[in-house]
């Protein structure tokens, strides 16, 4: 049975969480938001340049190119050739995968459900 996650963590939620966890380096929410936007921009630019982004312990973002494919024009029904498309692939690091599984199992056991 799939377990649904109730609410997604948004960018604002990440900013709030990071701003409260900075400890000795007090950052305002605005400073935290700017730093986060710069990180996202750096990752996006690297992907646009065709580079992989490796975040040890978290995962790897890599650009993926899908070649041209055949499609059908929905208006005329005629076959057409669609150009190649780009997307991003994410592969979770082993550490992240293990942490997610460990935490979900712990929550499941606390809730009284059996494995």
Secondary structure: number of strands: 5
Structural class: alpha+beta
List the secondary-structure elements in sequence, H or E.
Answer: HHEEEEEH
Residue runs with pLDDT of under 50 for 5 or more positions: none
**Based on the structure given, which CATH architecture of the largest domain is correct?**
Irregular
What is the count of helical runs?
3
Counted up, domains total 2
The separation of the N and C termini measures 11 Å
Keywords:
115 residues; alpha+beta; 3-stranded antiparallel sheet; 23% strand; HU Protein, Chain A; 2 domains; extended; two-stranded antiparallel sheet
What's the quick description here?
The protein has helices spanning 11-20, 29-48, 94-110; strands spanning 53-55, 59-66, 69-72, 79-82, 85-92. It is an alpha+beta fold and 115 residues long. The strands form 2 sheets. Strands 1-2-5 form a 3-stranded antiparallel beta sheet. It has a two-stranded antiparallel ribbon with strand order 3-4.
Summarize the topology.
Layout: H1 11-20, H2 29-48, E1 53-55, E2 59-66, E3 69-72, E4 79-82, E5 85-92, H3 94-110
Antiparallel strand pairs: 1-2, 2-5, 3-4
Describe this structure in words.
- The structure is a single chain.
- The protein has 115 residues and is α+β, with helices and mostly antiparallel strands.
- 41% of the residues lie in helices and 23% in strands.
- It has 2 domains: 10-50; 52-115, IHF-like DNA-binding proteins (HU Protein, Chain A, Irregular), CATH 4.10.520.
- It is built from 3 helices and 5 strands.
- It has a 3-stranded antiparallel β-sheet with strand order 1-2-5. Strands 3-4 form a two-stranded antiparallel sheet.
- The longest helix is centred in the middle third of the chain and has 20 residues, at 29-48.
- It is extended and about 60 Å long.
């Amino acid at each position: 049975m799939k377990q649904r996650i109730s609410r997604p963590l948004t960018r604002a939620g990440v900013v709030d969480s990071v701003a409260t966890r900075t400890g000795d380096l007090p950052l305002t929410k605005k400073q935290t938001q700017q730093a986060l936007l710069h990180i996202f921009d750096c990752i996006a630019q690297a992907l646009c340049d065709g580079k992989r982004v490796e975040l040890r312990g978290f995962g790897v973002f890599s650009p993926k190119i899908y070649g041209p494919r055949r499609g059908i024009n929905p208006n005329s029904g005629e076959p057409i050739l669609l150009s190649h498309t780009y997307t991003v692939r994410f592969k979770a690091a082993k550490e992240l995968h293990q942490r997610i599984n460990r935490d979900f199992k712990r929550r499941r056991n606390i809730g009284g459900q059996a494995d």
